[in-house]
Amino acid sequence: MSRDPKRARKKEARDARVAAVEAQLRRRRIARVAGVVAFLVVLAVLIGSSLREEENGPTEAAPVETAGEADGGPCPTAEDPPEPDPQQFDAPDDVLAEGVDYAAVIRTSCGDIEVDLLEDAAPENANSFAFLAQNGFYDGLTFHRVERNFVIQAGDPNGENGVPPDGPGYSVPDELPDRPSEYVFGVVGMANSGPDTGGSQFFIITYLPPEGVESEAAGLPKQYSIFGEVSEDSYAVIERIDDQRTKGGPDPVEASVPVEPVYILGIDIVER
Predict the structure, then answer these.
(1) How far apart are CA 176 and CA 231, in angstroms?
(2) What is the 3-state composition of the chain as percent helix, strand, coil, each rounded to the nearest 5?
(3) What are the tens digits of pLDDT across the range 114-153?
(4) For a disulfide at 109, which of 5, 50, 95, 263, Cβ 3.0-4.6 Å?
(5) 126: enclosing H helix or E strand
(6) Is 77 helix (H, G, I), strand (E, B) or coil?
(7) Which domains are assigned to the chain?
């Protein structure tokens, strides 16, 4: 039996993504060790400065930044974000041709995110996402939710989760993965408020396990359709968004909103 070239490419891409995630995990572990070493150095300087202050008067010590301040600088862009105009629709048109492999390029103020659309595994969700993208639904919207080392989320028409409208005017049926273990770094899923309620809001998993934890899964239940996978070349961009400083505070919705908005400038749907 001949091998399906498209499925072969998909498998090769998935294997490459797994290898890239493993490499990214190693880099993060190295960065954590380096961060601990840097903190200990700064701590030693501060202790030394404190001792010198008692003996010789005040001395100037280097400032100590919080993790949010150190990691998440704003993402400037030379292009002003478009004015949002997310229309409401009764249903998505069929915009993906059968047998064609598609990708989405999500252009953000933090850089471009290339996503391989999984039109075979989740045809309804991939088509809906492509339909909305081609109609400019996402242009000017923001990543309104950043949960560090977990998910980044976008696609809310007004950027206020829980404040209507929260979607495109229609719902998309669930196309769930076989196993919860598929929710790993770089996976693009459809957010929902219950079974078969997906719409326009999507999330990208940014979870990488701590040292000593073997599972790479983010711990999500099997309740969210997976319709895309971020390419290895775009990992740095989703990590940059994941590192953005958020507002914090007691309100769980407001707490995960980035201090400096991360805009979607546009989404291009391309054939591969």
Answers:
(1) 21
(2) 30, 20, 50
(3) 999 999 999 999 999 999 999 999 999 999 999 999 999 9
(4) 263
(5) helix 123-134
(6) coil
(7) 69-271 (2.40.100.10)
